[in-house]
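User: I'm putting together a small comparison set for a docking exercise, and I want a reference complex before I start. The sequence is below, and the ligand is glycyl-adenosine-5'-phosphate. Could you produce the 3D structure with the ligand included, as structure tokens?
Assistant: Of course. I'll restate your input first, then give the structure tokens for the complex.
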Amino acid sequence: MPGKAEKVNMEKLVSLCQRRGFIFPSSDIYGGLSGCWDYGPVGVELKRNVKDAWWRSIVRERDDIIGMDTSILMNPKVWEASGHVTSFKDPLVECKECHLRWKADDLAEDKCPACGGKLTEERMFNTMFKTFIGPVEEEASTVYLRPETAQGMFVNFPNALNTSRKRLPFGIAQQGKAFRNEITTGNFIFRSREFEMMEFEYFVKPGTDQKWFDYWVEERFNWYVKFGIKKENLGLNPHAQEKLAHYARCCTDITYLFPHGQAELEGIANRTDFDLRQHGEASGRSMEYYDDETKEHYIPYIIEPSAGVDRAILAFVSDAYDEEPDKDEIRVVLHFHTDIAPIKVAVLPLSRKENLAAFARDVYNDLRPCFATQYDDTQSIGRRYRRQDELGTPYCVTVDFQSLEDNMATIRDRDSMNQIRVPVPALKDTLLAKLAGEDLFVLPEGGQIWKQE
Ligand code: GAP
């Protein structure tokens, strides 16, 4: 069998994602729109799970971080003060032969990667999308689609502080869409023009910033491991001083071994007091914090862990992907962590016969309020297992004619393909325990104990 690196490539992932309803090109019937993607019925569940896992870890399970949801369109003065109007630019070159445009930073050689033609001189290109507010397309009403969610949190620092009554260190977190008119897109959902971010701004006392920076690099790295990403596929890439964004004192990327190579998954930046100071000066509003322990006024420093939702999804799918020998064939399976898996349980009646279908429907209706559950009565049972393996469904519940007599159903485990018979009244508790990572069950009916080998 080939090693994992040879098994997973972008072509296979794209094909699986389209075939199984994870991700489609945007406006597909019109030939798509470069750098834009649609999440299908399975993909949308996966996306929710990734965002929920992050929200739980960052907001719900911590006392020091609060959530927000700020608007995409903001007062244009925000982008002047933040430095984006002058500095959010990429170097663009154009091929003189085929007229394709490239981001100069991405090119290894001084010629067009498509046709080998000569390139124009570099010119800087602002990657913020513009649009207009109101009916008159005039300069005064120009607004930007936010290229990061961060600014909504910076400008809300006084609101968040006053209403939450938090003391430093504390953070504001949000998830949401961001837009960048990237010169080149590609590698599936890795670099798009419309994408989703999950980022938070952690406000700290100046002088403690390095400690918190190191803390968050470690925490965020471990978050990916906790949700199933293999440690050996992750890396850390501290940025060289000359590569830093205009706002950052230091930045470390968490990288992942994507099918196209090791690349940035999330960036953790020390933004110093740059953003709050800029917005304080431009708006005339105080962005200072009063430290009642030291009796000092100061502008907090900010540590910002910023992750791309779509990149995290690509990493989760890529890491979960496997091809395993199964009798004479190859079984394609996504070994998702149970919290990440888009569908948790599939109910599969062995036949469509009326009495069995009614029984299976009852089982399905009992389970579906608890977890994302699918009902599938098409094709052979073998094919249905294969389909669920490709969706990464941890458990399949099969009901057969024996079930009608003994009121038991079979649970099939995605990873080991082990099967156990469980009394139907105990199904829900057994699946809940199993999905929570327990491997020891006391079945209510008859008090049996089952432990997975
Ligand atoms: N507020 C900080 C910030 O915006 P960034 O490094 O530009 O930092 C953060 O972006 C994360 O957003 C990246 O690590 C990446 O996961 C994701 N991201 C950035 N640009 C993207 C794009 N064009 N398509 C998909 N994800 C992107």
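The longest strand covers residues 261-272. Residues 148, 150, 180, 182, 191-192, 195, 197, 199, 264-267, 304, 306-308, 310-311 surround glycyl-adenosine-5'-phosphate (CB under 6 Å).
User: Thanks, that's exactly what I needed.
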